[in-house]
Amino acid sequence: MDDSVAKLLEILDLERIEENLFRGRSPDTSWQRVFGGQVVAQALVAAQRTVPADRAVHSLHAYFLVAGDPKVPIVYEVDRIRDGGSFATRRVVALQHGQAIFTLSASFQVSEEGLSHQVAMPDVPRPDQLPGAAELRETILANAPDAVKRYWDRPRPVEFRPIAFDHYLTTDKLPPRQEIWVRVVSEIGEDPALNAAVLAYLSDMTLLDTSLFAHGLSVFDPRIQAASLDHSMWFHRPARVSDWLLYEQDSPSSSGARGLTRGSLFDLSGRLVASVAQEGLIRPRRSKT
Asked: 112 in helix, strand or coil?
């Protein structure tokens, strides 16, 4: 197994402190704050461990309150709001330094048959028709800004294959949408709960950037202060994150120093497995006087 994937699975294996209390840690990185997808995934794991195994997550809604400190553990406190005949509801608060840094509400449901429909997957090149990480670095990224190069060179448990890379190479104002193939770089197995947690982890990647395309900017631009504010996700069908998934994203609006982005995740067969929505802070940095 790839070392970055092993580290991801390790940080998702929370320590149980007490009934409804769990402790998670962050990987040893140079980041100044905890990656938002990590907190979403860990909070979901904490909630999952208080729910019967026959109930799978079907939605979550989260708020990022304070930037997480990667140097200290995060304590997750689970509130068992309700256990009904078909559904269970959990609320999770993430705590550091004596204060809440993040909250998540999640709903779980027993498997049921019912009506089914979905939108069609976009007609885009398949991942095997696109350049891999090494080719990206040698060709397209060769002329990219240093901050972009550092981001794409960093070892990570998730591989990206963007359909287009124009937004990192130009300051032109572009349509606020993108499609990216994503997958975990090693096999993690069939466990539905683990696959859902890792899907939540990777769902926070690249979303905020999409809302900046219309302004000729990216999250790597030093003139922009960017941070996730909230994150919602709906799990429609089981997914395998070790297989390629198409992440289609669009940003319908930005205003008030905030940008909204929507996402749809499709598997290789064209099934819509999850939908995502996120609003993020995209504020011009104030000049120092």
From this structure: coil
278 is catalytic: yes
- CB 202 within 8 Å of CB 158: yes
pLDDT score of 72: 94
pLDDT at 169 over 80: no
Q: Which of 105, 228, 249, 275 is catalytic?
A: 228
Q: What is the pLDDT of residues 243-258, one digit of tens each?
A: 999 999 999 999 999 9
Decide: 53 and 110 in contact? Cβ < 8 Å. Answer: no
Q: What's the pLDDT tens digit per position in 37-69?
A: 999 999 999 999 999 999 999 999 999 999 999
- pLDDT digits 0-9 by tens, 72-116: 999 999 999 999 999 999 999 999 999 999 999 999 999 999 999
Q: Residue written as tokens 């962050």?
A: 26
The verdict on whether 146 is a catalytic residue reads no
Averaged pLDDT, 260-270 = 98
Enumerate domains of the chain plus CATH numbers. Answer: 1-110 (3.10.129.10), 130-289 (3.10.129.10)
* Pairwise CA distance, residues 209 & 261, whole Å: 9
The active-site residue out of 38, 105, 204, 251 is 204
Of 13, 3, 2, nearest to 38 (Cα)? 13
Q: 48, 249, 251, 278: which is the annotated catalytic residue? A: 278
Active site residue 221: no
Torsion on CA atoms 9, 11, 15, 20, rounded to nearest 10: -90
